[in-house]
Amino acid sequence: MSRFNWDIHGQFRPLCASCNRLITFASLIYFLLAMALGYLYLFPVIQTSGILESIESNGTCNVFEGSWIYDESYPLYNASNCPFAEPGWNCWANGRKDGDYAKWRWKPKGCDLPRFNARAFLEKFCGKRVVFVGDSLGRAQWESFICLLMAGVEDKKSVFEVSGHKITKTIRFLGVRFSSFNLSIDFYRSVFLVQHGPSPRNAPKWVKRTLRVDMMDDISKEWIDSDILMFNSGGWWTNDRLFHKMGCYFQVGNSLEMGMPVTAGYRRALHTWASWAETMINTTRTRVFFKTFEANHWSGKNWNTCEVTARPSSDTNGREKNELSDIIVEVVKKMRIPVTLLHVRKMSAFRGDGHVGRWSDNPSKPDCSHWCLPGVPETWNELLFSFLLPLY
């Protein structure tokens, strides 16, 4: 009996070994499946088919062509709960009660724009530095970006402005630190990108300032050490603002170019920026973006009437046409380094409903240039997010 049992046990030994191997293999498959499901949970946006081709607009889907559709799941944050959102752009808190302006999302023709995933970005870009450079429209995108990311942070106190500054219009540098992720999101106020300074000696009395369109802004050295670099410029480039209100004219070298039109000055400034970027930016590390000039919705004989609509329009009414945006496209296409263009001009032309209007901290001055937060700028950041996440 004893020997018989040993024989049986001996026959079972190879079978048990096979079972052990089978169990090990099944465990490995289970582990890999669990990892895959976890990845899909954390990074759902990557599952959008063809997103990289779509965003680069070289596939069948151009994400800059499409329409705005109503979506009850928006907005993605509450500006009143985000200390980095400028109070003057918090339209809801300033009395606008329809709320629908924040519930429209961009739907490209032939594909979908992925929803912003704060946690995925924070984990993917841990230890990185993101820099926004430009005017107040660029700062609005920067504020929107930070408020979107705040949704992925459990300890809100771990997010702070590095110098203790409140968000204001005039400070040249604002830096927000997500300390739990060693992530910096910075903004540099450089409305022209090129050097703005006093008029040269012997200039006519009406020349108060000059724009050195052949020389970069003196703070440009601060932008270089970055992983993501987003530029915009356009809102200040008008005859009325430059020549009449500021008494500011263009300068090249020591020569005051009194007859240079705004569009020629802008083109020269962008070529200066492009040359600087090609020389100074290490594109093996830094991804460079440039956003085209967003549409405003001023109307009237002197373009001084601001009437905010109740919903997006079905037609751009010609507002998608803009010479400054065309110059940006022209310059970027000829650059020797990769620069991603966010061509948002046409997208924004539909959104006469999205402006601050009279719902600001100064309702006596209606605003049809800037956007309510939350609102339209979230779409610029969803575009940016879609470009970036598949690349890291």
UniProtKB/TrEMBL annotation:
InterPro entries: TBL, TBL_C, TBL_N
Location of this chain's protein in the cell: Membrane
Domain Trichome birefringence-like C-terminal residues, every copy: 113-386
Keywords from the named record: Membrane, Signal-anchor, Transmembrane, Transmembrane helix
Keyword hit for Transmembrane: yes
UniProt GO cellular component terms: membrane
Domain of life: Eukaryota
Gene Ontology MF annotations: O-acetyltransferase activity
Transmembrane region(s): 21-42
Record domain Trichome birefringence-like N-terminal: where: 60-112
Membrane topology: Single-pass membrane protein
Family of the protein in this entry: Belongs to the PC-esterase family. TBL subfamily.
PANTHER family xrefs: OS01G0880400 PROTEIN (PTHR32285:SF63), PROTEIN TRICHOME BIREFRINGENCE-LIKE 9-RELATED (PTHR32285)
Protein name: Protein trichome berefringence-like 7
Organism classification: Eukaryota, Viridiplantae, Streptophyta, Embryophyta, Tracheophyta
